[in-house]
């Protein structure tokens, strides 16, 4: 037995279509069998609600008098794209405000527009005979715009790898707070309710298909950026009218030390045309596996520590190498379920009918990494090879002398084997002098938990370490933990000498 | 009842002294010593001894704040994602059967870790 899309739409129009949410489908198939479920169910609705950073909106403000071609544009001091004429712009969700606290960004501008607030528009232009005006400052509300069309390059990931952190430091990432020593796992995704997980071969989801987007009825534009369906990481480009959206399903967010992002609800109804559609929408949390990746490794290819299903992750704890690790989600399953339920009610009320893709998405595409033609600058290119060190059992007065002579603020401390065991700074010496409590040896006052770098580490990673730990130097160690050089924060300045060459 | 005790730099054993003087057992839930900001401890004491303990601590030179409640949760901002759940050391946060976030403020030790971890600024401390 097969059903046509026209037959399903006829049932939607006369109010007799049977619509269920994707999380209900596995049990229905279990109870009625595949043939029975195909006869019984016409539409399965899906939903997801989570951080979708790659989102934004095209806005048209109407012409000013005298007219301006806006070349640089700020909305509440968040820069928007000025490369499209003349009063068009694109505001991206993750762009940070240039003046407000960094927790305000493009996503907040979008949310503030939708909640009816006035937004300050500032723009500059170099002026032309047809657009003489050079600058404008005004306040606009969503209702004042001609168009506010959300177009999101990458939404509704099919699934997303979970995050863990094996390093010694708490990391603040777009996957949330990752505690040191694998103390938590953060994951994202709606599992059984996820749109593409219910249509992994992309037979039903494609260009032109109607969707729920931020509370409005929108549609799939086509393949999303970084679409990688071959690896089960398909994505969608979506669009919808911002003026019909609401803040229940569109929320600006700020990920600590990452930046602004947009939480968005996306839902897609799937017509149950054949047995294949039944089979695919019967997917359970147990069937959808993700890798747990180590964000403690600052590299594109983060090591995988294990494979777990959404069912495992949703229990609140997993077992990893014999230890229990707490898990929690960044996306909201409660809101995902609400999205799927609203899509269900739209279809039951005849407010949304379905269609098949006008263009299909490639189900076998694989995303590529970036082609890089210039080599990454490494620590060894700017580190100072002449490094003054001190032994653990030397007096602090020796350390003070060395600090003075060496014109440095950091002395790496070595044990009798020559291995790095600590660091002494001028601050440590000053403290010891200010509070003389019989601390006379370097080992009494040194910092033992030393943050180090390696000669072949990319300079950006070393810079991140300096920034993260709020320190101003990193001893450079080799594989035997011998201190071979030192990298000072001030050495980073060498990279920015105008026209200068690396030493 | 939880008390937030700020100690002055001269390191006198104030908490030990108060335990000795009053006989009240004090549970130190969290303590921090910082070169710039001094020492701070969050302690839990039986409700009936709260006044007695805090007065005694004050007389020994500590600043004491009585904390009526733990972290506060703004339900309008919260989207029930659960990002706070796995990073809380005390299991304050959980989901009910409808995946709605539940907050057991009594368990909270006001470490503040969840405040920066909440993507929606739905968690805050009132003190």
Report what the structure shows.
The complex is a heterodimer of chains A (503) and B (127). By secondary structure, chain A is an alpha+beta fold. Chain A has three domains: 5-52 and 152-360, no CATH class; 62-145, no CATH class; 379-496, Roll (CBS-domain). Chain A contains ten helices and 31 strands. In chain A, strands 3, 4, 7, 10, 16, 17, 18, 19 and 20 form a nine-stranded antiparallel sheet that branches. A four-stranded antiparallel sheet of chain A has the order 6-5-8-9. Chain A has a three-stranded mixed sheet with strand order 1-2-21, with helices on one face. Chain A starts with a helix and ends in a 15-residue tail after the last strand. Chain B is built from three helices and eight strands; from the N terminus they run βαββαββββαβ. In chain B, the strands form three sheets. In chain B, strands 2-3-1-4 form a four-stranded antiparallel sheet, with helices on one face. In chain B, strands 5-8 form a two-stranded antiparallel sheet. Chain B folds into two domains: 2-67, ACT domain (Alpha-Beta Plaits, 2-Layer Sandwich), CATH 3.30.70.260; 71-127, 2-Layer Sandwich (Alpha-Beta Plaits). Chain B has helices at 14-22, 50-59, 113-117, and strands at residues 2-7, 27-34, 38-44, 63-67, 72-73, 93-95, 101-103, 123-124. With 127 residues, chain B is α+β, with helices and mostly antiparallel strands. In chain B, α1 (14-22) crosses α2 (50-59). Classes of the chains: A alpha+beta (503), B alpha+beta (127). Chain A binds chain B through residues 49-51, 103, 172, 176-177, 179, 184-186, 251, 253-256, 261, 263, 316, 326-335, 337, 431, and chain B through 35, 79-87, 94-95, 98-100, 113, 116-117, 119-121.
